[in-house]
Amino acid sequence: MTENSRSVEACYSEEQKNAIRLFHKDLVVFAGAGSGKTMLLVERFFHAVTKERIAPEKILAITFTEKAAHEMRRRLVARCQEQGLSNLRQELENAPISTIHSFCARVLRENPIESGIDPFFRVLSEGEAEILMEKMIDRLFDEEAENPAWLEILTDYGEENIRQALKNFYDLSRAFADDPKMFQCASHPAQKKHAFQALGAFLKERLRRLDSRGGLSAPEEKFKTTLREMQAWAAGRMPEEGLQVARLLAVRKKLEKRSEKIKGDVERLETLLDAWVLFALEDVLAPVKREFLRVFARFKRAYESEKMKKAAYDFEDLVYLTYKLFSGSPPENQAVLSRVRKLFSCILVDEYQDTSPLQAGIIDLLRKGSRLFIVGDVQQSIYGFRHADPWVLQRLVQGPAGRQAYERVSLSRNHRSRKEILDWINHLFRYSSQKFPFAALEAGKDYASVKPHALEVLCVERGKEKIATLEQARIAEARMLSRHLRELVGSGQPVEEPDGRTRPISYRDFAVLFRSTTSAYLYEKEFLDAGIPFQVLKGKGFYEKPEIADILSCLTFIESPEEDIALACVLRSPLVAVSDDALFWLARAAQANQKETPLGAALSGLDQVKEIEAPDRRVLERFCVWIEKLRAMKDRVKVSDLIRRIFMETGLEAKLLAQEAGKQKLANVLKLVEVARVAEERERVGIGDFIRALKRLSEQEVSETQAPIEGGSGNVVTFSTVHAAKGLEFPCVVVADMGAQPKKNSRGPILSLKETGLGMKWLNPLTRQMSPDLAYTQIEAVMNEKEKEEGERVLYVAMTRAKEHLILSGSAPAEPKSAGGSWMDKVVSVLDSSQCQILKRVITDMPEPWKDPAPKCTVAGELGLHQGLFTPESVRVEAVKDFVDYEERFKAIHRDYFQTQDMTVTDILTASLRAAERGPISPEEDLVPDPDEEEPTTPRNEFGTLFHKLMEILASERPKSIRPKFFNSPFLQALGDEDRAEIKKDVLAFWKGPWGRVVREAKKCYPELPFIYKTGRGVLKGQMDLVLQTRGGEWLLLDYKTNRMTRAQKGPLAKKYEIQISLYAWVFKKLYGEAPSKGVLYFSSIREAAEFSYGLRDFLKLEKDLLSYLHVTQ
After folding, report:
1. Is the dihedral of CA 573, 578, 579, 585 positive or negative?
2. The predicted structure's pLDDT at residue 973
3. Does residue 799 share a domain with residue 653?
4. What is residue 199's three-state secondary structure?
5. Which of 158, 572, 602, 962 is the most buried (most CB within 10 A)?
């Protein structure tokens, strides 16, 4: 044993040593927050390789994120270097360490026949999947338009609710592997009969008692009348049971509890009636449920068929399809499972508490024959919205009849936080509502410095005159926090570095964590005014940012002129910026004759609205012309181009840069353009599709970062959601907005749960109000309880991020009896019973705003920014800057977080040319420049991009001939006549020529095939223009070159590009196991090709060449 290994072993506890060394049976490690689970996984892996003699490729390690996988691999390489085991480095770099989704993708690609999917499939982003689902639902609704039963469902429940329900049910069907229990329609005829008899008996008995008495009071007489009416409706036979339920519920509304004499009877009657209604609605809703499930089944089949046709699947499909492959009963499926099991001698799984039942099912299927090592913490399970279930981990240690199925190791020593912080967390969670016992944390780190107030509670009292509402309380809290952080940084109090040395605290030591960043903009404003620099690490607020919402409102109005809210938002936004008075007069004019008249109608009669002032009138007149121009072109141009036009023609960049955090806002707009562009890469996306997809992602609160910009790191405070901060740690953590009440989830009228089946609400035809059936009521109760428990776990995760200083900040009602279920209410309720040293500050008055707010960004003349759409054309044209300049200036800064290098094949091509002293070339440069020739309308690289796009469409559809309208594609509209004629001629020449015939007749075609290949020195990335299998079964690679050139230049240029096409062939062989027989460079300007043939020796030489090229690039 080396000195290094002895020193490492010495710092482990006995529990940690057991977790590292125990290999004779499956092991579950319950690792509390800060207990060093990442180190544990690394040491377990390293021990398996060095002591148990298990080869790295035989150890499957599953992590929760790709970042965690890279970090684990980086630490393993570092351990090898420490121990002088450099020979293991490359083996460890190529070890199967990945997320469950990456593992599943690999399994599916390697077993295409058994899984029944194309091995060259691509993975859809959330936005792409959302757009595709919307398109399939649109098609389905059109096909069901003549179905009266379906139209009634859409009318009763609303189209948006039904769309959402179809998507939710599809998500559930995959998450639980099409379990038939999930969508069963329960009925309880015996219980229903018993409930109805109990109701009837009660009515009869109470009426008998009232009839036998004389001198009834007025409330008793009214109650008696109501009972008779209810008895009549209950005894009567209705053509529909739903009408009987409606009548009885209508009578129920007449019940009053004002008289103490009848209060008990009224409550008993309501209980009996409600119990019967729950059962009765199961039968009333049965035909509605059957119709919904029929349409859902159609949607599921159509959507899955479309994905298979496109060879495109989302992340959850990867897990679902792998589970179906492994769990299938056919012999070929079992053969795949057996083969994959034999690949691994050991399996390590991180963050097991965040796995879904389906993911856990895959791991369990792989378990047999492998030693399984699982790490998790049920107290940190916070991904219920992804179907993560903490009981998946908890049940592992409970075998049949209570016998322990796994060996259990518990790690409770926290090596991150001060003892004072941990004592508070342990105290607070003694009162937890979790169904499993809370595991207290022990302090495992001794801090040298003394901190008198490691724990603070900053509480704003709300409900009084000056701070009446929750929003006012948030403003007060944000002002208080900004002042306090400035004071702390100014005080220079020490924080400890990992090596024990101290330094003064700075802004980079603070993280402000939110459960939801919906209201984070209030805190951002106060921090800006205070001059405190900050960055938004990640959050659920990108789609709600004002600059994004303004553009989406403009797109909405272009698509739907009757959308009043969208129009009002656009008019008041910086895009147009008319006054409130002008908006008022417009609205008044629109509704003068009829209240339902849309606001846009007033714009067409603008000359009749005399009250609007001249400056606003001129702006509105220009707006009308401009918006009609955009509306006329909306079906001819891409959404990304439409957003660019809105950006450029309204002068939005100047207006944004004039605002606080203007650079960030501008970067966000450019990111929106990129979101649209990515969605358009594979297929046509309409405005409606794009808006609905983004609205859905916003409603789902899909985490979407703001666009990162240069200067976004350094000495800045970090704003983040708790979910995004999981796995991180900070010297000082502020848990903010703790006064927010738990979000009331709008669940929709149709729900499902495996334990109960399908639940639904019923629309009362008399009152038009919704009533739930029994299953819906049960599902809602279960969901409420789960969300309450997960909310507590989110708070636990937030507080355990703190190392030295924890600040709990929020508001609470001034009157304790008004307390609800917020985090701050929970803190206040146990504060007095705590023995911890806590500095408590209570704010009762609204703090004054900053008197010396930080200087706001102003737009200086040297920026050369135009004033926008609503200024004279001459000024606008002279001042406009090219949009691409802004994209370049504010583009996202990407930083590697691991030491290996990411490269493209183009990087290697350039390196090889430099090494050979040929000089680098641009892939699409013009090789025949003419000094007298004017600059072409379209730069050559853009011309090449459009040529590739057309070829991608042709290779996907493979028509026998090209129709003239093919060249009317929206993305070609920007070309000049000369460029359009050239690209048309080049495309036709290819398609009519010999290579076009090869493509048309090919067995398989894969255009624009992306790849990522891990090498020992980094990740190699690229995209192959076209991969195809000929009728004879040979695989060919085709690469298009659109350089302007002469035939004499073909040979030398082909020689330069040979390494690129050859590397594509080598990577394809490595990834897919098929050896291309030929690589083809097609030069469009001369309509000729250069061919390169490959054999086994060529591929062996290419592998050696690749290593030398990688060395050159580094």
Report:
1. negative
2. 64
3. no
4. helix
5. 602
pLDDT at residue number 831: 87
CA distance 558 to 551: 11
Contact yes or no for 1052/1094 (Cβ under 8 A)? no
Beta bridge partners of 1041: 1083
Give residue 745's pLDDT.
Answer: 62
Q: Please, which contacts does 855-862 make with residues 24 or more away whose CB atoms are closer than 8 Å? A: 856/658, 856/659, 856/660, 857/657, 857/658, 857/659, 857/660, 857/661, 857/662, 857/663, 858/658, 859/654, 859/657, 859/658
Tokens of 971: 């993305």
- Positive or negative, the Cα torsion across 301, 302, 307, 309? positive
Nearby residues of 412 by Cβ (< 8 Å), 6 or more positions away: 32, 35, 439, 440, 441, 442
Residue 626 maps to which CATH number?
Answer: 1.10.486.10
Rounded Cα gap, residues 914 and 920, in angstroms: 6
Question: Could you give the residue ranges of the DSSP H alpha helices within 313-438?
Answer: 315-327, 331-343, 357-367, 390-394, 419-428
Tokens representing 734?
């502020």
Asked if 387 and 356 touch (Cβ cutoff 8 Å), the reply is yes
Q: How far is CA 736 from CA 346, 426, 478, 814, in A?
A: 42, 20, 9, 19
Mean pLDDT score of the chain: 82
Residues 49 and 38: beta-carbon distance below 8 Å = no
Distance between CA 527 and CA 515 in Å, rounded?
19
Looking at residue 857, the DSSP 8-state letter turns out to be P
If pLDDT is split at 50, 70 and 90, which confidence band does 95 have? confident
Show the DSSP H helices in 739-822 as ranges. Answer: 774-799
**Residue 637 to residue 642: CA distance in whole angstroms:** 7
Q: Looking at the domain assignment, is residue 849 inside a domain?
A: no
337 plus 362 within the same structural domain: yes
Q: Provide the terminal-to-terminal Cα distance of the chain, rounded to the nearest Å.
A: 34
Q: In terms of domains, do 503 and 577 share one?
A: no
The CATH number linked to 530 is 3.40.50.300
Token pair in block for residue 322? 């792998």
The answer on 973 and 1033 residing in a single domain is yes
Same domain, 530 and 594: no
Given 636, 669, 700, the domain boundary residue is 700
* Span 329-367, pLDDT tens digits: 899 999 999 999 999 999 999 999 999 999 999 999 998
pLDDT tens string 547-587 = 888 888 888 888 888 887 788 888 888 888 888 788 888 87
Whether 967 and 1089 share a structural domain: yes
Whether residue 209 is found in the same domain as residue 245: yes
Strands (E), 789-857: 802-813, 839-843
Q: Residues 64, 69, 71, 76: is their CA dihedral positive or negative?
A: positive
Note down the domain range covering 384. 14-121+314-411
Residue 787 lies in a domain: yes
Please give the structure tokens belonging to residue 669: 């707009």
* Count of domains observed in the chain: 5
CB atoms within 10 A of CB 489: 19
- Eight-state DSSP code of residue 265: H
Per residue in 689-729, pLDDT (tens digit) is 787 777 666 655 444 445 544 444 578 999 999 998 998 99
Q: What is the CA radius of gyration of the chain?
A: 33
Q: Is the pLDDT of residue 509 over 90?
A: yes
pLDDT tens-place string over residues 380-400 = 999 988 888 888 888 887 655
CB contact at 8 A, 174 and 303: no
Distances (CA, A) of 573 to 55, 405, 857: 61, 61, 19
Q: Which residue in 269, 267, 196, 194 sits closest to 227, CA to CA? A: 269
List, for residues 607-663, the tens digit of each pLDDT value.
Answer: 788 888 888 888 888 888 888 888 888 878 888 888 888 888 888 877 777 776 677
Bridge partners of 735?
Answer: 513, 808
Find out whether 524 and 661 touch, Cβ atoms under 8 Å.
Answer: yes
Amino acid identity of residue 230, one-letter, is M
Listed residues 262, 293, 310: the one ending a domain: 310
The reply to whether 500 and 626 lie within a common domain is no
